[in-house]
């Protein structure tokens, strides 16, 4: 390994991430080779530039999804279906999610999203403050998602810590235990939906047929677990990053307040905030020996191409750490690209839009509570664990 390509990079403990996670990643992007090796978390490559990350997101023949976590999970760990499948196998499992989350289906969910948002915000307004993550970010998307899969809303307090360990657990053992706990929880529900199918999303994914044959019970558990992990965390994290930014950038918040009914502007603002606040990381496995831009990859090498670094790359987005609602053509990969692009992106954008419109109509001025800095965490999915807000 050439010494010039070795960097001490631990994405679970990035210097400065307690203040701004994305800015912490950006510093490595500016200071390091475009592709470098770190001995941390089992040893893996890291790609830092949009051009290369986009190749790695789409080229499954050289960069496989078959192991997406770092450090690596135990060999006996069940595959996370469909995320740890490569095309064409991946497409058969993905189809039910795409159908359930296409624009027409999401439009039918919008009324419910709106009602949950309004009810939650109205309850918070007279309090003069809240812990945003617990009181809103982990209420809106999770209420909506648990309705989609028709699971008891009262189970969320049991499920959320499990999801937290899965997406931000720093070691393979923690993440493995969370997968097993989620699988144990789902046993009853998966059996029920396979024996007596309903019209919910959980029914659709646990009864997928491949070549005329229904997937096995074990595959159904794995598929359902992955969907739950995604539905319980991702949108909640993005809502929290949005709220933190608006609480600390008065001009941006007030500009959105003044233009809440300008749909074109609101769409651009949401996309710019998503670009600036990417979250997810999924690892790859190199499938064969080959050279890429002077880097000698070997079969079995692990690779991290962080989605968020696409949006932060100054080669495609000038002044990338600055949020600019007038930015034209902002490039990002917050929801991935290619065959594994996030099927929930349409619903996520809809929930973010409803949050901005309904929150800012009722709470146009708010800030981070003095003396209570946000608590943030990096990992396979970056997030905000605690965000104290206050308002008059």
TrEMBL record:
Record's keyword annotation contains Aminoacyl-tRNA synthetase: no
Keywords: Heme, Iron, Metal-binding, Monooxygenase, Oxidoreductase
CDD domains named among the record's database cross-references: P450cam-like
Keyword Oxidoreductase listed: yes
Pfam families recorded: p450
Similarity comment: Belongs to the cytochrome P450 family.
Name of the featured protein: Cytochrome P450
